[in-house]
Design a protein that fits this description.
Layout: E1 3-7, E2 19-20, E3 23-33, E4 37-46, E5 49-50, E6 59-63, E7 66-68, H1 70-73, E8 76-78, E9 84-93, H2 102-118, E10 124-129, E11 136-141, H3 152-155, H4 166-181, E12 188-196, H5 208-217, E13 221-227, E14 242-246, H6 252-268, E15 270-276, E16 283-293, E17 299-309
Parallel strand pairs: 9-10, 9-12, 12-13, 13-14
Antiparallel strand pairs: 1-3, 2-3, 3-4, 4-5, 4-15, 6-7, 6-16, 8-15, 10-11, 16-17
């Protein structure tokens, strides 16, 4: 089967959507396959906020400048997990003079509230750190709707070191998030790291500049949660995608609740639009226009464009068929993996055969297995995940 995909390995390479009337539409990936199936993975926002709750009626499809009717396209919205994997990792600061009683309880309740909000949209992993050299796994939560009321692993957390190893913890958390994203053979991988910090790094194992560099280079969304007016610490320095601040430890639950809602909404702004094209040959310019209303009932819209190859297309399209997204052969990651695989031994003169590629390094043992269907003909994931922001 001939397939054509426009896939961008990094957020910087995403096709720029058009901002019209406050709606921003980004094309993340496009698939076109026989008999005449087209699918486009889209990220849609209204102003600075994710635009959620859209239906097929909000989408208008144009090919070569001509609008196609819904009767012609049979357009539908497919489950987003057919194109992408979304995951979140919450990193909780348990360093410093460990809080007893109410404060520790507030942090445990707040973290549980975050998980309850966020895991309705995507799987959530929780780690904690103190002054020790490594972060510690607290729990893994599959995507689901059940309410999480407590995290006893946080409430009963035992410090290994009373210092704060914030900088190293953030870098390690990014690597753990990437490792989990890499367990799924999906063309689009979108990770969210949420860091709750109670103060600055004190251990000094990793310089502030190294943490900043890691955040700048990461394609993950990074949010931060903090308490206002903590000496020497600004949560916004970490939260490049958003910051949530509590007035005091007593109001942490509200800040974590807001962060969990925002992370869930970020996932909900992605849509997988599929339709049947009437094209039967050649290249087609496709424009997807999104039309909705603002809070006052006024119509607002935005659009994005891409191209598809309709060579060899025929009748018999079912828009509900699962898209087969593949990556461009020439697409290469901009950065190396967080933990590069060991070097292959050089072949001896007597063995001129080329060395075989090593398999991708698996994620941590505690990482859950991918929910992909077996036998799905998707190429192996690239060395570094691709993300949309």
């Amino acid at each position: 089967m001939n397939r054509h995909l426009l896939f961008f390995a990094t957020a910087a390479a995403l096709t720029c959507g058009c901002m019209l009337g406050g709606v921003h539409v980004q094309e993340v990936a496009t698939s076109a396959q026989k008999p005449a199936n087209v699918a486009v993975y889209l990220a849609i926002s209204k102003g600075d906020a994710p635009l959620t709750g859209l239906s097929e009626k909000n989408f208008h499809v144009f090919e070569d400048g001509q609008e196609l009717t819904p009767e012609q396209t049979q357009q539908i919205l497919l489950p987003r997990d057919e194109a992408a994997i979304h995951r979140a990792l919450l990193l909780v600061d348990m360093s410093g003079p460990i809080m007893e009683g109410d404060t520790r309880h507030q942090i445990a309740m707040a973290a549980a509230r975050f998980v309850s909000r966020a895991h309705a949209a995507e799987p959530v992993t929780v780690y904690a750190f103190d002054g020790g050299p490594s972060i510690r796994l607290i729990a893994e939560f599959a995507q689901g709707t059940e309410e999480i009321t407590e995290l006893p692993q946080i409430e009963n957390y035992a410090q290994t070191d009373s210092s704060s190893n914030l900088n190293s913890a953030v870098i390690e958390a990014l690597a753990q998030l990437d490792a989990r994203l890499m367990t799924a053979q999906k063309p689009v991988r979108i990770g969210s790291l949420i860091v709750f910090g109670r103060g600055p790094d004190l251990a000094g194992r990793v310089a502030d500049s190294k943490m900043t560099e890691a955040l700048d280079e990461s394609k993950d969304l990074v949010f931060s949660i903090g308490i206002k007016d903590v000496p020497g610490f600004r949560a916004s320095r970490i939260g490049k995608s958003g910051t949530f601040e509590a007035d005091s430890p007593a109001s942490l639950v509200h800040a974590f609740d807001e962060a969990g809602g925002r992370v869930g909404d970020v996932v909900a702004r992605y849509y997988l639009l599929a339709y049947c094209t009437p094209a039967r040959a050649g290249q087609r310019s496709v424009r997807i226009k999104v039309v909705t209303t603002d809070d006052e009932g006024k119509e607002i819209s935005g659009s994005t464009s891409t191209d598809v190859d309709a060579t060899g297309f025929t009748s018999g399209c079912n828009p509900a068929d699962r898209p087969r997204f593949v990556t461009r052969a020439e697409t290469k990651p901009e950065t190396a993996p967080a933990t590069p695989p060991p070097e292959e031994p050089k072949p001896s003169d007597a063995d001129a055969r080329p060395a075989k590629d090593k398999p991708a390094k698996p994620g941590p043992k505690e990482a859950p297995k991918s929910g992909d269907d077996e036998g799905d003909a998707v190429v192996p994931p690239p060395a570094k995940p691709g993300y949309a922001q």
